[in-house]
Amino acid sequence: MINGSGAFLNLLTGNGLDATSSAAAGWHMEALMDDRKYLTAEEVSDRYRGSISVGTLRNWRAMRIGPAYIKIGKAVLYPIEELGAWDQKNMVTCRASNRLTMDPSE
Q1: Model pTM?
Q2: Which of 6, 21, 47, 86 is disulfide-compatible with 67, CB 3.0–4.6 A?
Q3: Domain limits, the chain
Q4: Hey, is 22 helix, strand or coil?
Q5: What is the separation, in whole angstroms, between the first and last Cα of the chain?
Q6: How open is the CA angle 57-62-66, to the nearest 5 degrees?
Q7: What does pLDDT average to in each consecutive run of 10 residues of the chain (106 residues)?
């Protein structure tokens, strides 16, 4: 990877740190987590607790399904706002069942 492109990716993901930063600066990255605007495929997989793998995201990109993404060179980034919209689009709303409600008079 070209040295400048890693810094560009870090700028987009919002952590402001390069991959060679010391572990002591880890607290700084955690403090900036809420300021990020984009996630990498690995971070998206972590967001969904591994139920969507990086490979699945790659396949979905090839089929043009799944969450919206941005591609800059070889870098694939997922806008956090788009992930939220995708979550809402895929939300399943359940209706209350009459059997599950308890009548105190029974």
Answers
A1: 0.61
A2: 86
A3: 1-36, 37-91
A4: coil
A5: 69
A6: 45
A7: 50 51 46 75 97 98 97 96 96 81 62
